[in-house]
Amino acid sequence: MIKNMTNKKRFLRWIPFLVIGIMLTAVHGLFAQPVESPEQVSGLLENGVTKLEQNRPDEALSDFLTGLKTVRGGQDKTLESRLLFYSGLALQQKALNIGNDQEKKDLLLKAAGYYNRMLQIKPESGAALNNLAQIYAGMGEYDKSDHFFQQGIRTGGTRKGFYALNYAEQLQARGETSAALFYTLKAAEEQPSDLNAHKAVVKRVWQLKDSQTCLQYLWRLMKHGAVNRAEETALNALSSKDVFTDNRKEFLVVVTAALARQYYHPAGFIGSETGSRLFALRESSDLQRPINELFALHEETAPGKFDSWWWNRRRPVLPSPVSGREAFRRLAHSLAKRWRVAPGQQAIKAAERYYNIAIGFGSHDADPESFLELADLYVNTGRVEKLAELSHRYETSLYRGKADGYQEKNWANIYKFHSALGFVYAHLGQWENTDPYYASAVFQLKHALTAAQNHNYEAASVGTKTTINIPAQIPALLSKAYFETGHFEKGVNTAVKYAETFLKDGRPDKAKETLEYLETYQAPVGVQKNLKTRYDNLVRQLPGIEPLTLKIAPPRTLMLKYPYQRGEDVRKLQKALSNQGIRLKPDGIFGKDSAQALKTYQQNQGLPATGRTDTTTLKSLGVE
Protein backbone atom coordinates (compact mmCIF):
# COMPACT_ATOMS: atom_id res chain seq x y z
CA MET A 1 0.00 0.00 0.00
CA ILE A 2 2.72 2.47 0.99
CA LYS A 3 4.73 1.41 -2.08
CA ASN A 4 1.80 2.08 -4.42
CA MET A 5 1.31 5.53 -2.93
CA THR A 6 4.96 6.32 -3.46
CA ASN A 7 4.79 5.35 -7.17
CA LYS A 8 1.68 7.44 -7.61
CA LYS A 9 3.41 10.48 -6.14
CA ARG A 10 6.37 9.99 -8.46
CA PHE A 11 4.05 9.79 -11.52
CA LEU A 12 2.24 12.95 -10.51
CA ARG A 13 5.53 14.77 -10.22
CA TRP A 14 6.26 13.96 -13.92
CA ILE A 15 2.89 15.20 -15.26
CA PRO A 16 3.97 18.88 -15.66
CA PHE A 17 7.03 17.80 -17.58
CA LEU A 18 4.93 15.56 -19.87
CA VAL A 19 2.48 18.38 -20.60
CA ILE A 20 5.34 20.76 -21.40
CA GLY A 21 6.88 18.12 -23.71
CA ILE A 22 3.61 17.57 -25.55
CA MET A 23 3.16 21.33 -25.95
CA LEU A 24 6.68 21.75 -27.27
CA THR A 25 6.12 18.89 -29.73
CA ALA A 26 2.91 20.52 -30.95
CA VAL A 27 4.62 23.89 -31.38
CA HIS A 28 7.47 22.23 -33.26
CA GLY A 29 4.91 20.51 -35.47
CA LEU A 30 3.35 23.86 -36.27
CA PHE A 31 6.59 25.54 -37.26
CA ALA A 32 8.71 22.64 -38.55
CA GLN A 33 9.53 22.53 -42.28
CA PRO A 34 8.40 19.56 -44.47
CA VAL A 35 10.72 16.62 -44.77
CA GLU A 36 11.64 17.83 -48.29
CA SER A 37 11.01 21.14 -50.13
CA PRO A 38 9.36 21.06 -53.62
CA GLU A 39 12.78 21.75 -55.14
CA GLN A 40 14.27 18.82 -53.26
CA VAL A 41 11.37 16.59 -54.32
CA SER A 42 11.97 17.54 -57.96
CA GLY A 43 15.61 16.61 -57.42
CA LEU A 44 14.57 13.24 -56.01
CA LEU A 45 12.37 12.70 -59.07
CA GLU A 46 15.21 13.48 -61.46
CA ASN A 47 17.64 11.27 -59.57
CA GLY A 48 15.11 8.45 -59.56
CA VAL A 49 14.56 8.70 -63.30
CA THR A 50 18.34 8.53 -63.82
CA LYS A 51 18.50 5.40 -61.68
CA LEU A 52 15.67 3.85 -63.70
CA GLU A 53 17.67 4.48 -66.86
CA GLN A 54 20.59 2.70 -65.17
CA ASN A 55 18.31 -0.28 -64.32
CA ARG A 56 18.39 0.38 -60.55
CA PRO A 57 14.62 0.20 -59.86
CA ASP A 58 14.85 -0.37 -56.04
CA GLU A 59 16.90 2.79 -55.49
CA ALA A 60 14.70 4.74 -57.89
CA LEU A 61 11.53 3.57 -56.09
CA SER A 62 12.99 4.68 -52.75
CA ASP A 63 13.50 8.21 -54.15
CA PHE A 64 9.99 8.34 -55.61
CA LEU A 65 8.31 7.14 -52.41
CA THR A 66 10.30 9.62 -50.30
CA GLY A 67 9.07 12.39 -52.56
CA LEU A 68 5.48 11.12 -52.39
CA LYS A 69 5.46 11.39 -48.59
CA THR A 70 6.02 15.13 -48.94
CA VAL A 71 3.68 16.04 -51.81
CA ARG A 72 0.80 13.61 -51.13
CA GLY A 73 -2.40 15.57 -50.58
CA GLY A 74 -0.66 18.87 -51.32
CA GLN A 75 -1.27 21.51 -53.97
CA ASP A 76 1.33 20.37 -56.49
CA LYS A 77 -0.72 17.70 -58.27
CA THR A 78 1.55 17.67 -61.31
CA LEU A 79 4.57 16.66 -59.24
CA GLU A 80 2.50 14.10 -57.33
CA SER A 81 1.18 12.53 -60.55
CA ARG A 82 4.70 12.22 -61.97
CA LEU A 83 5.98 10.55 -58.81
CA LEU A 84 3.06 8.10 -58.90
CA PHE A 85 3.74 7.31 -62.56
CA TYR A 86 7.47 6.66 -62.04
CA SER A 87 6.76 4.60 -58.95
CA GLY A 88 4.62 2.33 -61.10
CA LEU A 89 7.32 2.28 -63.76
CA ALA A 90 9.99 1.33 -61.20
CA LEU A 91 7.87 -1.59 -60.00
CA GLN A 92 7.29 -2.69 -63.59
CA GLN A 93 11.03 -2.60 -64.26
CA LYS A 94 11.72 -4.53 -61.07
CA ALA A 95 9.18 -7.20 -62.12
CA LEU A 96 11.19 -7.82 -65.27
CA ASN A 97 14.11 -9.03 -63.18
CA ILE A 98 12.02 -11.39 -61.02
CA GLY A 99 11.83 -15.09 -61.87
CA ASN A 100 9.08 -15.99 -59.38
CA ASP A 101 5.71 -15.68 -61.14
CA GLN A 102 3.70 -14.87 -58.00
CA GLU A 103 6.20 -12.26 -56.83
CA LYS A 104 6.23 -10.76 -60.32
CA LYS A 105 2.42 -10.60 -60.33
CA ASP A 106 2.39 -8.92 -56.91
CA LEU A 107 4.82 -6.26 -58.15
CA LEU A 108 2.78 -5.62 -61.28
CA LEU A 109 -0.43 -5.26 -59.25
CA LYS A 110 1.33 -2.71 -57.03
CA ALA A 111 2.47 -0.88 -60.16
CA ALA A 112 -1.12 -0.91 -61.42
CA GLY A 113 -2.18 0.65 -58.12
CA TYR A 114 0.20 3.57 -58.59
CA TYR A 115 -0.96 4.10 -62.20
CA ASN A 116 -4.61 4.08 -61.09
CA ARG A 117 -3.85 6.65 -58.39
CA MET A 118 -2.13 8.79 -61.01
CA LEU A 119 -5.17 8.54 -63.31
CA GLN A 120 -7.33 9.93 -60.52
CA ILE A 121 -5.24 13.10 -60.78
CA LYS A 122 -4.61 13.02 -64.53
CA PRO A 123 -7.22 10.77 -66.22
CA GLU A 124 -6.05 11.64 -69.74
CA SER A 125 -2.50 10.32 -69.26
CA GLY A 126 -1.90 8.11 -72.28
CA ALA A 127 1.38 6.83 -70.81
CA ALA A 128 -0.29 5.52 -67.63
CA LEU A 129 -3.15 3.97 -69.64
CA ASN A 130 -0.68 2.31 -72.02
CA ASN A 131 1.39 0.88 -69.14
CA LEU A 132 -1.72 -0.39 -67.36
CA ALA A 133 -2.78 -2.10 -70.59
CA GLN A 134 0.66 -3.75 -70.84
CA ILE A 135 0.42 -4.99 -67.24
CA TYR A 136 -3.00 -6.59 -67.73
CA ALA A 137 -1.97 -8.09 -71.06
CA GLY A 138 1.03 -9.68 -69.36
CA MET A 139 -1.29 -11.22 -66.77
CA GLY A 140 -3.69 -12.51 -69.43
CA GLU A 141 -6.52 -10.15 -68.43
CA TYR A 142 -7.27 -9.11 -72.01
CA ASP A 143 -10.61 -7.38 -71.39
CA LYS A 144 -8.93 -4.91 -69.03
CA SER A 145 -5.93 -4.63 -71.37
CA ASP A 146 -8.14 -3.82 -74.38
CA HIS A 147 -10.05 -1.23 -72.35
CA PHE A 148 -6.94 0.65 -71.25
CA PHE A 149 -5.22 0.42 -74.65
CA GLN A 150 -8.27 1.85 -76.43
CA GLN A 151 -8.69 4.59 -73.84
CA GLY A 152 -5.00 5.47 -74.14
CA ILE A 153 -5.24 5.69 -77.93
CA ARG A 154 -8.26 7.98 -77.66
CA THR A 155 -6.60 10.36 -75.17
CA GLY A 156 -2.92 9.88 -75.97
CA GLY A 157 -2.34 13.15 -77.85
CA THR A 158 0.81 13.12 -79.97
CA ARG A 159 1.77 9.68 -78.61
CA LYS A 160 -1.43 7.90 -79.62
CA GLY A 161 0.29 6.38 -82.66
CA PHE A 162 2.90 4.80 -80.37
CA TYR A 163 0.18 3.36 -78.12
CA ALA A 164 -1.72 2.05 -81.15
CA LEU A 165 1.41 0.25 -82.32
CA ASN A 166 1.85 -1.32 -78.87
CA TYR A 167 -1.75 -2.49 -78.95
CA ALA A 168 -1.27 -3.91 -82.44
CA GLU A 169 1.71 -5.94 -81.24
CA GLN A 170 -0.35 -7.36 -78.37
CA LEU A 171 -3.18 -8.27 -80.74
CA GLN A 172 -0.73 -9.89 -83.16
CA ALA A 173 0.74 -11.95 -80.31
CA ARG A 174 -2.79 -13.17 -79.54
CA GLY A 175 -3.28 -14.20 -83.17
CA GLU A 176 -5.77 -11.42 -83.95
CA THR A 177 -4.05 -10.41 -87.21
CA SER A 178 -6.88 -8.37 -88.76
CA ALA A 179 -7.38 -6.31 -85.60
CA ALA A 180 -3.59 -5.90 -85.33
CA LEU A 181 -3.52 -4.54 -88.90
CA PHE A 182 -6.30 -2.07 -88.07
CA TYR A 183 -4.35 -0.56 -85.16
CA THR A 184 -1.07 -0.68 -87.06
CA LEU A 185 -2.69 1.40 -89.80
CA LYS A 186 -3.98 3.75 -87.13
CA ALA A 187 -0.46 4.11 -85.76
CA ALA A 188 0.90 4.87 -89.24
CA GLU A 189 -1.88 7.39 -89.83
CA GLU A 190 -1.10 9.20 -86.58
CA GLN A 191 2.67 9.13 -87.14
CA PRO A 192 3.30 8.88 -90.91
CA SER A 193 7.03 9.48 -90.46
CA ASP A 194 7.42 6.55 -88.03
CA LEU A 195 9.48 3.92 -89.85
CA ASN A 196 8.56 1.21 -87.32
CA ALA A 197 4.85 1.75 -87.92
CA HIS A 198 5.45 1.65 -91.69
CA LYS A 199 7.37 -1.63 -91.48
CA ALA A 200 4.65 -3.13 -89.29
CA VAL A 201 1.95 -2.19 -91.81
CA VAL A 202 3.90 -3.66 -94.73
CA LYS A 203 4.64 -6.83 -92.80
CA ARG A 204 0.98 -7.39 -91.91
CA VAL A 205 -0.53 -6.62 -95.34
CA TRP A 206 2.07 -8.96 -96.82
CA GLN A 207 1.03 -11.68 -94.35
CA LEU A 208 -2.66 -11.21 -95.21
CA LYS A 209 -1.94 -10.69 -98.95
CA ASP A 210 -4.31 -7.73 -98.70
CA SER A 211 -3.55 -5.63 -101.79
CA GLN A 212 -6.52 -3.27 -101.33
CA THR A 213 -5.52 -2.28 -97.79
CA CYS A 214 -1.94 -1.87 -98.95
CA LEU A 215 -3.01 0.47 -101.75
CA GLN A 216 -5.18 2.53 -99.42
CA TYR A 217 -2.22 2.86 -97.08
CA LEU A 218 0.14 3.93 -99.88
CA TRP A 219 -2.23 6.68 -100.99
CA ARG A 220 -2.38 7.91 -97.39
CA LEU A 221 1.42 7.96 -97.35
CA MET A 222 1.35 10.07 -100.51
CA LYS A 223 -1.13 12.45 -98.90
CA HIS A 224 1.20 12.92 -95.92
CA GLY A 225 4.19 13.60 -98.19
CA ALA A 226 6.00 10.25 -97.74
CA VAL A 227 6.38 9.97 -101.51
CA ASN A 228 9.62 7.96 -101.73
CA ARG A 229 8.38 5.48 -99.13
CA ALA A 230 5.15 4.95 -101.06
CA GLU A 231 7.04 4.51 -104.33
CA GLU A 232 9.48 1.97 -102.89
CA THR A 233 6.70 -0.06 -101.25
CA ALA A 234 4.66 -0.08 -104.48
CA LEU A 235 7.69 -1.31 -106.42
CA ASN A 236 8.25 -4.05 -103.83
CA ALA A 237 4.61 -5.06 -104.17
CA LEU A 238 4.98 -5.29 -107.95
CA SER A 239 8.08 -7.43 -107.55
CA SER A 240 6.36 -9.81 -105.11
CA LYS A 241 4.25 -11.73 -107.62
CA ASP A 242 3.40 -14.49 -105.15
CA VAL A 243 2.01 -11.99 -102.60
CA PHE A 244 -0.19 -9.63 -104.63
CA THR A 245 -1.75 -11.27 -107.65
CA ASP A 246 -4.48 -8.65 -108.14
CA ASN A 247 -4.49 -4.84 -108.41
CA ARG A 248 -0.95 -4.92 -109.78
CA LYS A 249 -1.55 -2.11 -112.25
CA GLU A 250 -2.87 0.05 -109.44
CA PHE A 251 0.51 -0.26 -107.71
CA LEU A 252 2.03 1.05 -110.96
CA VAL A 253 -0.34 4.02 -110.76
CA VAL A 254 1.06 4.74 -107.27
CA VAL A 255 4.60 4.67 -108.67
CA THR A 256 3.61 7.07 -111.45
CA ALA A 257 1.85 9.47 -109.06
CA ALA A 258 4.95 9.38 -106.84
CA LEU A 259 7.21 10.21 -109.80
CA ALA A 260 4.97 13.20 -110.53
CA ARG A 261 5.77 14.56 -107.06
CA GLN A 262 9.54 14.44 -107.64
CA TYR A 263 11.99 16.69 -109.47
CA TYR A 264 14.21 14.84 -111.94
CA HIS A 265 15.48 15.02 -115.52
CA PRO A 266 13.50 12.79 -117.91
CA ALA A 267 16.61 11.71 -119.83
CA GLY A 268 18.08 9.97 -116.78
CA PHE A 269 14.93 8.12 -115.79
CA ILE A 270 15.60 4.75 -117.42
CA GLY A 271 19.00 4.51 -115.74
CA SER A 272 17.61 5.43 -112.34
CA GLU A 273 16.80 2.86 -109.67
CA THR A 274 13.06 3.20 -110.29
CA GLY A 275 13.52 3.01 -114.05
CA SER A 276 15.72 -0.09 -113.75
CA ARG A 277 13.21 -1.87 -111.53
CA LEU A 278 10.35 -1.04 -113.90
CA PHE A 279 12.43 -2.22 -116.85
CA ALA A 280 12.87 -5.60 -115.12
CA LEU A 281 9.10 -5.81 -114.59
CA ARG A 282 8.36 -5.52 -118.31
CA GLU A 283 8.60 -9.31 -118.50
CA SER A 284 5.20 -9.48 -116.78
CA SER A 285 2.55 -9.61 -119.49
CA ASP A 286 0.07 -7.52 -117.47
CA LEU A 287 2.59 -4.70 -116.91
CA GLN A 288 4.49 -4.64 -120.20
CA ARG A 289 2.20 -2.22 -122.02
CA PRO A 290 1.78 0.47 -119.33
CA ILE A 291 5.50 0.38 -118.48
CA ASN A 292 6.48 0.77 -122.15
CA GLU A 293 4.13 3.77 -122.38
CA LEU A 294 5.81 5.31 -119.32
CA PHE A 295 9.21 4.88 -120.98
CA ALA A 296 7.85 6.42 -124.18
CA LEU A 297 6.80 9.50 -122.21
CA HIS A 298 10.28 9.92 -120.73
CA GLU A 299 12.04 9.21 -124.03
CA GLU A 300 9.87 11.81 -125.81
CA THR A 301 8.76 9.17 -128.33
CA ALA A 302 5.08 9.34 -127.36
CA PRO A 303 2.71 9.79 -130.31
CA GLY A 304 0.38 12.75 -130.71
CA LYS A 305 -2.76 10.75 -129.92
CA PHE A 306 -3.28 8.69 -126.80
CA ASP A 307 -6.80 7.34 -127.19
CA SER A 308 -5.68 3.71 -127.30
CA TRP A 309 -3.18 3.95 -124.43
CA TRP A 310 -3.64 1.89 -121.29
CA TRP A 311 -3.15 5.03 -119.21
CA ASN A 312 -6.12 6.73 -120.85
CA ARG A 313 -8.64 5.53 -118.28
CA ARG A 314 -10.93 8.19 -116.90
CA ARG A 315 -12.13 6.60 -113.67
CA PRO A 316 -9.87 5.19 -110.96
CA VAL A 317 -10.10 1.52 -110.00
CA LEU A 318 -10.99 1.28 -106.32
CA PRO A 319 -9.44 1.59 -103.81
CA SER A 320 -7.17 4.07 -105.64
CA PRO A 321 -8.45 7.68 -105.47
CA VAL A 322 -6.47 8.61 -108.60
CA SER A 323 -7.03 7.17 -112.07
CA GLY A 324 -4.26 6.05 -114.38
CA ARG A 325 -5.06 8.99 -116.64
CA GLU A 326 -4.76 11.52 -113.82
CA ALA A 327 -1.46 10.05 -112.61
CA PHE A 328 -0.06 10.12 -116.16
CA ARG A 329 -1.25 13.71 -116.62
CA ARG A 330 0.38 14.78 -113.37
CA LEU A 331 3.65 13.21 -114.46
CA ALA A 332 3.57 14.97 -117.85
CA HIS A 333 2.77 18.24 -116.07
CA SER A 334 5.65 17.71 -113.64
CA LEU A 335 8.09 17.03 -116.50
CA ALA A 336 6.86 20.20 -118.24
CA LYS A 337 7.57 22.27 -115.13
CA ARG A 338 11.02 20.67 -114.91
CA TRP A 339 11.84 21.73 -118.47
CA ARG A 340 10.33 25.20 -118.04
CA VAL A 341 12.95 26.28 -115.49
CA ALA A 342 15.82 24.89 -117.59
CA PRO A 343 17.73 27.35 -119.82
CA GLY A 344 17.61 27.45 -123.62
CA GLN A 345 15.09 27.22 -126.45
CA GLN A 346 15.18 23.42 -126.49
CA ALA A 347 13.99 23.39 -122.90
CA ILE A 348 11.11 25.73 -123.75
CA LYS A 349 10.08 23.46 -126.64
CA ALA A 350 10.22 20.40 -124.38
CA ALA A 351 8.12 22.17 -121.75
CA GLU A 352 5.57 23.15 -124.40
CA ARG A 353 5.39 19.56 -125.63
CA TYR A 354 4.85 18.10 -122.16
CA TYR A 355 2.25 20.75 -121.32
CA ASN A 356 0.32 19.80 -124.46
CA ILE A 357 0.45 16.12 -123.47
CA ALA A 358 -0.88 16.97 -119.99
CA ILE A 359 -3.62 19.25 -121.36
CA GLY A 360 -4.87 16.98 -124.12
CA PHE A 361 -4.35 13.53 -122.60
CA GLY A 362 -7.76 11.93 -123.00
CA SER A 363 -10.64 13.08 -125.12
CA HIS A 364 -13.11 14.32 -122.51
CA ASP A 365 -11.69 17.25 -120.57
CA ALA A 366 -8.51 19.31 -120.61
CA ASP A 367 -6.17 19.83 -117.67
CA PRO A 368 -6.76 23.45 -116.58
CA GLU A 369 -3.53 23.81 -114.58
CA SER A 370 -1.35 22.78 -117.51
CA PHE A 371 -3.43 24.97 -119.85
CA LEU A 372 -2.92 27.99 -117.59
CA GLU A 373 0.82 27.38 -117.21
CA LEU A 374 1.30 26.94 -120.95
CA ALA A 375 -0.64 30.15 -121.59
CA ASP A 376 1.57 31.91 -119.05
CA LEU A 377 4.65 30.47 -120.79
CA TYR A 378 3.47 31.94 -124.11
CA VAL A 379 2.87 35.35 -122.49
CA ASN A 380 6.27 35.39 -120.76
CA THR A 381 8.16 34.34 -123.91
CA GLY A 382 6.44 36.99 -126.05
CA ARG A 383 4.25 34.59 -128.06
CA VAL A 384 0.81 35.95 -127.23
CA GLU A 385 -0.35 35.04 -130.74
CA LYS A 386 -0.19 31.36 -129.70
CA LEU A 387 -2.99 31.94 -127.18
CA ALA A 388 -5.69 32.06 -129.86
CA GLU A 389 -4.53 28.68 -131.19
CA LEU A 390 -4.39 27.27 -127.66
CA SER A 391 -7.87 28.55 -126.88
CA HIS A 392 -9.32 27.19 -130.13
CA ARG A 393 -7.81 23.73 -129.55
CA TYR A 394 -8.87 23.19 -125.92
CA GLU A 395 -11.74 25.61 -125.22
CA THR A 396 -14.49 23.01 -125.71
CA SER A 397 -12.90 20.42 -123.44
CA LEU A 398 -12.21 23.08 -120.79
CA TYR A 399 -15.88 24.03 -120.76
CA ARG A 400 -16.80 20.36 -120.56
CA GLY A 401 -14.50 19.87 -117.55
CA LYS A 402 -15.94 22.98 -115.89
CA ALA A 403 -19.47 21.60 -116.34
CA ASP A 404 -18.37 18.37 -114.66
CA GLY A 405 -16.98 20.44 -111.79
CA TYR A 406 -20.33 22.16 -111.28
CA GLN A 407 -22.16 18.84 -111.45
CA GLU A 408 -19.87 17.41 -108.76
CA LYS A 409 -19.84 20.73 -106.80
CA ASN A 410 -16.06 20.59 -106.80
CA TRP A 411 -15.24 24.26 -106.25
CA ALA A 412 -11.48 23.73 -106.46
CA ASN A 413 -11.78 22.32 -110.00
CA ILE A 414 -14.34 24.97 -110.97
CA TYR A 415 -11.84 27.64 -109.89
CA LYS A 416 -9.09 26.08 -112.02
CA PHE A 417 -11.20 26.00 -115.19
CA HIS A 418 -12.59 29.55 -114.76
CA SER A 419 -9.16 31.05 -114.00
CA ALA A 420 -7.53 29.29 -116.98
CA LEU A 421 -10.20 30.54 -119.41
CA GLY A 422 -10.23 34.01 -117.84
CA PHE A 423 -6.45 34.35 -118.14
CA VAL A 424 -6.47 33.54 -121.85
CA TYR A 425 -9.49 35.73 -122.63
CA ALA A 426 -7.83 38.65 -120.80
CA HIS A 427 -4.60 38.34 -122.79
CA LEU A 428 -6.61 37.99 -126.01
CA GLY A 429 -8.49 41.20 -125.14
CA GLN A 430 -11.86 39.42 -124.90
CA TRP A 431 -12.90 41.56 -121.97
CA GLU A 432 -16.65 41.32 -122.33
CA ASN A 433 -18.93 39.45 -124.73
CA THR A 434 -22.64 39.37 -125.39
CA ASP A 435 -22.74 36.24 -127.57
CA PRO A 436 -21.74 34.04 -125.93
CA TYR A 437 -21.65 36.08 -122.74
CA TYR A 438 -19.42 33.58 -120.93
CA ALA A 439 -16.55 33.81 -123.46
CA SER A 440 -15.09 36.84 -121.71
CA ALA A 441 -12.47 37.71 -119.13
CA VAL A 442 -14.99 39.49 -116.88
CA PHE A 443 -17.31 36.48 -116.65
CA GLN A 444 -14.62 33.82 -116.18
CA LEU A 445 -12.41 35.71 -113.72
CA LYS A 446 -15.36 36.85 -111.60
CA HIS A 447 -16.62 33.26 -111.36
CA ALA A 448 -13.10 32.00 -110.62
CA LEU A 449 -12.90 34.23 -107.54
CA THR A 450 -16.41 33.20 -106.45
CA ALA A 451 -15.45 29.51 -106.77
CA ALA A 452 -12.28 30.07 -104.72
CA GLN A 453 -14.31 31.85 -102.06
CA ASN A 454 -16.85 28.98 -101.93
CA HIS A 455 -14.07 26.37 -101.70
CA ASN A 456 -12.25 28.21 -98.92
CA TYR A 457 -15.50 28.66 -96.99
CA GLU A 458 -16.20 24.92 -97.20
CA ALA A 459 -12.60 24.10 -96.25
CA ALA A 460 -12.85 26.34 -93.17
CA SER A 461 -16.21 24.85 -92.12
CA VAL A 462 -14.86 21.27 -92.12
CA GLY A 463 -11.52 22.24 -90.57
CA THR A 464 -9.28 21.32 -93.49
CA LYS A 465 -6.17 23.28 -94.48
CA THR A 466 -6.43 22.73 -98.25
CA THR A 467 -7.48 26.27 -99.15
CA ILE A 468 -6.92 27.96 -102.50
CA ASN A 469 -4.17 30.59 -102.42
CA ILE A 470 -5.39 32.97 -105.08
CA PRO A 471 -2.52 34.41 -107.14
CA ALA A 472 -2.51 38.20 -107.43
CA GLN A 473 -2.87 38.07 -111.23
CA ILE A 474 -6.47 36.75 -111.07
CA PRO A 475 -8.06 39.70 -109.17
CA ALA A 476 -5.64 42.07 -110.91
CA LEU A 477 -6.78 40.88 -114.35
CA LEU A 478 -10.44 41.11 -113.31
CA SER A 479 -9.83 44.65 -112.09
CA LYS A 480 -8.23 45.49 -115.44
CA ALA A 481 -11.13 43.83 -117.28
CA TYR A 482 -13.59 46.10 -115.45
CA PHE A 483 -11.53 49.17 -116.40
CA GLU A 484 -11.37 48.05 -120.03
CA THR A 485 -15.16 47.75 -120.13
CA GLY A 486 -15.89 51.08 -118.43
CA HIS A 487 -16.81 49.70 -114.99
CA PHE A 488 -14.22 51.83 -113.22
CA GLU A 489 -15.60 51.68 -109.70
CA LYS A 490 -15.93 47.87 -109.89
CA GLY A 491 -12.31 47.73 -111.04
CA VAL A 492 -11.06 49.80 -108.12
CA ASN A 493 -13.25 47.92 -105.64
CA THR A 494 -11.94 44.51 -106.85
CA ALA A 495 -8.30 45.59 -106.61
CA VAL A 496 -8.80 47.20 -103.19
CA LYS A 497 -10.72 44.23 -101.77
CA TYR A 498 -8.05 41.66 -102.67
CA ALA A 499 -5.12 43.97 -101.89
CA GLU A 500 -6.56 44.42 -98.39
CA THR A 501 -6.87 40.64 -98.03
CA PHE A 502 -3.30 40.03 -99.18
CA LEU A 503 -2.00 42.72 -96.83
CA LYS A 504 -3.96 41.26 -93.91
CA ASP A 505 -2.43 37.84 -94.66
CA GLY A 506 1.08 39.33 -94.49
CA ARG A 507 1.70 39.36 -98.27
CA PRO A 508 2.36 42.99 -99.20
CA ASP A 509 4.08 41.95 -102.46
CA LYS A 510 0.82 40.41 -103.70
CA ALA A 511 -1.17 43.42 -102.50
CA LYS A 512 1.13 45.68 -104.48
CA GLU A 513 0.93 43.46 -107.57
CA THR A 514 -2.87 43.61 -107.43
CA LEU A 515 -2.88 47.41 -107.42
CA GLU A 516 -0.08 47.87 -109.96
CA TYR A 517 -2.31 46.71 -112.84
CA LEU A 518 -4.26 49.95 -112.39
CA GLU A 519 -1.28 52.29 -112.63
CA THR A 520 -1.71 52.83 -116.39
CA TYR A 521 -5.20 54.27 -115.87
CA GLN A 522 -4.50 57.87 -114.85
CA ALA A 523 -7.78 59.48 -115.89
CA PRO A 524 -9.81 60.69 -112.86
CA VAL A 525 -12.13 57.93 -111.63
CA GLY A 526 -15.23 58.65 -109.56
CA VAL A 527 -15.77 56.32 -106.60
CA GLN A 528 -17.71 56.37 -103.37
CA LYS A 529 -16.07 58.12 -100.43
CA ASN A 530 -15.52 54.93 -98.42
CA LEU A 531 -13.77 53.21 -101.35
CA LYS A 532 -11.48 56.20 -101.90
CA THR A 533 -10.53 56.17 -98.21
CA ARG A 534 -9.68 52.45 -98.39
CA TYR A 535 -7.64 52.93 -101.57
CA ASP A 536 -5.69 55.88 -100.12
CA ASN A 537 -4.96 53.85 -96.98
CA LEU A 538 -3.50 51.01 -99.09
CA VAL A 539 -1.31 53.39 -101.08
CA ARG A 540 0.13 54.77 -97.84
CA GLN A 541 1.03 51.25 -96.69
CA LEU A 542 2.51 50.15 -100.02
CA PRO A 543 5.32 52.51 -101.04
CA GLY A 544 6.13 52.67 -104.73
CA ILE A 545 2.53 52.51 -105.98
CA GLU A 546 1.73 55.18 -108.55
CA PRO A 547 -1.69 56.20 -107.19
CA LEU A 548 -4.81 56.66 -109.28
CA THR A 549 -6.50 60.03 -109.32
CA LEU A 550 -9.75 59.23 -107.53
CA LYS A 551 -12.53 61.70 -106.92
CA ILE A 552 -15.63 61.37 -104.79
CA ALA A 553 -18.54 60.37 -107.00
CA PRO A 554 -22.06 61.54 -106.23
CA PRO A 555 -24.08 58.89 -104.43
CA ARG A 556 -25.92 56.58 -106.80
CA THR A 557 -29.68 56.60 -106.93
CA LEU A 558 -30.99 53.57 -105.09
CA MET A 559 -34.17 52.09 -106.49
CA LEU A 560 -35.90 48.78 -107.06
CA LYS A 561 -34.35 47.19 -110.15
CA TYR A 562 -33.13 43.77 -111.27
CA PRO A 563 -30.59 42.58 -110.43
CA TYR A 564 -31.00 44.13 -106.98
CA GLN A 565 -28.54 46.87 -106.07
CA ARG A 566 -26.07 45.84 -103.38
CA GLY A 567 -23.43 47.58 -101.34
CA GLU A 568 -22.49 49.53 -98.26
CA ASP A 569 -24.58 52.52 -99.39
CA VAL A 570 -27.67 50.26 -99.37
CA ARG A 571 -26.82 49.04 -95.87
CA LYS A 572 -26.38 52.60 -94.56
CA LEU A 573 -29.78 53.58 -96.00
CA GLN A 574 -31.42 50.51 -94.44
CA LYS A 575 -29.91 51.27 -91.02
CA ALA A 576 -31.09 54.91 -91.23
CA LEU A 577 -34.64 53.77 -92.09
CA SER A 578 -34.54 51.24 -89.25
CA ASN A 579 -33.51 54.00 -86.83
CA GLN A 580 -36.71 55.82 -87.83
CA GLY A 581 -38.78 52.94 -86.46
CA ILE A 582 -39.37 51.22 -89.80
CA ARG A 583 -38.81 47.44 -89.57
CA LEU A 584 -36.11 46.54 -92.08
CA LYS A 585 -33.17 44.11 -92.10
CA PRO A 586 -29.89 45.91 -93.03
CA ASP A 587 -28.58 43.20 -95.39
CA GLY A 588 -27.10 45.53 -98.02
CA ILE A 589 -29.58 44.39 -100.72
CA PHE A 590 -32.11 46.89 -102.08
CA GLY A 591 -35.11 44.60 -102.63
CA LYS A 592 -38.89 45.04 -102.40
CA ASP A 593 -38.84 45.48 -98.62
CA SER A 594 -36.26 48.26 -98.88
CA ALA A 595 -38.22 50.06 -101.62
CA GLN A 596 -41.45 49.89 -99.57
CA ALA A 597 -39.66 51.08 -96.41
CA LEU A 598 -38.24 54.06 -98.33
CA LYS A 599 -41.70 54.95 -99.69
CA THR A 600 -43.18 54.75 -96.18
CA TYR A 601 -40.53 57.09 -94.83
CA GLN A 602 -41.02 59.56 -97.69
CA GLN A 603 -44.78 59.56 -97.10
CA ASN A 604 -44.30 60.15 -93.34
CA GLN A 605 -42.01 63.10 -94.10
CA GLY A 606 -44.29 64.62 -96.70
CA LEU A 607 -41.77 63.93 -99.48
CA PRO A 608 -42.57 62.55 -102.94
CA ALA A 609 -43.03 58.80 -102.32
CA THR A 610 -40.95 57.61 -105.29
CA GLY A 611 -39.18 54.73 -103.55
CA ARG A 612 -35.92 56.21 -104.92
CA THR A 613 -33.18 58.04 -103.10
CA ASP A 614 -32.62 61.71 -103.84
CA THR A 615 -30.65 64.52 -102.19
CA THR A 616 -33.58 65.70 -100.03
CA THR A 617 -34.41 62.20 -98.77
CA LEU A 618 -30.78 61.37 -97.98
CA LYS A 619 -30.27 64.70 -96.18
CA SER A 620 -33.44 64.11 -94.15
CA LEU A 621 -32.14 60.69 -93.09
CA GLY A 622 -28.65 62.01 -92.35
CA VAL A 623 -27.06 59.71 -94.91
CA GLU A 624 -24.16 61.09 -96.97
Your description of this structure?
Helix content is 68%, strand content 2%. It is mainly α and 624 residues long. Among the domains are: 32 residues; 155 residues, no CATH class; 80 residues, no CATH class; 57 residues, Muramoyl-pentapeptide Carboxypeptidase, domain 1 (Orthogonal Bundle). Strand 1, helix 25 and strand 2 form a beta-alpha-beta unit. It is flat and about 100 Å long. It starts with a helix and ends with a helix. The N terminus is likely disordered.
Relevant terms:
mainly alpha, 28 helices, 2% strand, disordered N terminus
How would you state the average pLDDT, rounded?
Answer: 87
Number of strands: 4
Radius of gyration, in angstroms, nearest whole number: 38 Å
Shape: flat
Order of strands across the main sheet: 1-2
Oligomer: single chain
The tally of helices reads 28
- Look at the helices and sheets and give the structural class: mainly alpha
